[in-house]
Amino acid sequence: MTTYAIGDLQGCHAEFVELLERIDFDPRHDRLWLAGDLVNRGPASLACLREVRALGEAAITVLGNHDLHLLAVARGGGRLNRKDTLAAILDAPDRDALLDWLQSRPLLVRQAFDGQGDTVMTHAGLLPQWTQDEAAGFAAEVEARLGGECSGSFLERMYGNAPACWKASLEGIERLRAIVNVLTRMRFIDAGGCLDFSAKEGLDSAPPGFAPWFRYPRGDDLRLVFGHWAALEGRAEGAQVRAEALDTGCVWGGTLTALNLSSGERIDVPSHQRR
């Protein structure tokens, strides 16, 4: 059995099918880890959702910020943005089944792989101040709220840039929002673990006093697999941790990338989208 981690699909269904063929993926034996953002911006978000859901236990996906945005629009009173490509999902006859499935996905997965040690995947990364056990517990807090009776009110209040700094003493919606922001939106942080939400481009766009989260050392040898940051083009340059960047910008005309989580081999297919 081989497990592959694949970067952000964002509605690039044709490339996803091509990549599965390229790695000779067999759902009877192999497994997929998907780094979140299955939907939005690309041309076939509905097909991506249906394809991944149909793989059943052969595929594990973590929630990304675009996945949560879809849930917020559908079930939390949120509004579509001008560039969203989510209408086909919202109008689909199997809409509720797809949204129920998506809403039950985790924010973090972890496993030990031979020769690679412990591996954690989230959409955006992991604060260096969090141990993997703490991070799993924090993710579970959000997952419990998404699966609870008050999920609609949570989705309505989920997004916002405050608080930008994580504190263990945070409570209520501020605590849950801070966890969501770390796991699905983080790029640049300062030495204290405060997030910057203004810079979204490459490493040279870091605001003064901030650096990519993976340039801060950790107290363990955890391998961190993440998507979210297409401008990195799959390279976590200057990393002080074992970081594997998987978002290679398929929806922006780059590639779609799969990482063999045992061997470390990368396989990619070119995008069908215009740059």
Structural account:
With 275 residues, this protein is α/β, with parallel strands linked by helices. The chain has one domain: Purple Acid Phosphatase, chain A, domain 2 (4-Layer Sandwich). 29% of the residues lie in helices and 17% in strands. It contains 8 helices and 12 strands. The chain has a 5-stranded mixed β-sheet with strand order 3-2-1-11-12, with helices on one face. The radius of gyration is 17 Å and the shape is globular. InterPro entries: ApaH (IPR004617), Calcineurin-like_PHP (IPR004843), Metallo-depent_PP-like (IPR029052). Its EC number is 3.6.1.41.
Task: Summarize the SSE layout with pairings.
Layout: E1 3-6, H1 13-22, E2 31-34, H2 45-54, E3 59-61, H3 65-75, H4 87-90, H5 95-103, E4 109-113, E5 117-121, H6 132-146, H7 151-157, H8 172-185, E6 188-189, E7 195-196, E8 211-212, E9 223-226, E10 242-245, E11 255-260, E12 266-270
Parallel strand pairs: 1-2, 2-3, 5-9, 9-10
Antiparallel strand pairs: 1-11, 4-5, 6-7, 6-8, 11-12
Quick recap of the structure?
It holds the Pfam family Metallophos. One of its GO terms (molecular function) is bis(5'-nucleosyl)-tetraphosphatase (symmetrical) activity. With 275 residues, this protein is of the alpha/beta class.
Name of the level-1 CATH class: Alpha Beta
Portion of residues in helices?
A: 25-40%
Largest β-sheet summary: 5 strands, mixed
What is the H-and-E element order?
A: EHEHEHHHEEHHHEEEEEEE
Shape annotation = globular
Q: Write the CATH fold name.
A: Purple Acid Phosphatase, chain A, domain 2
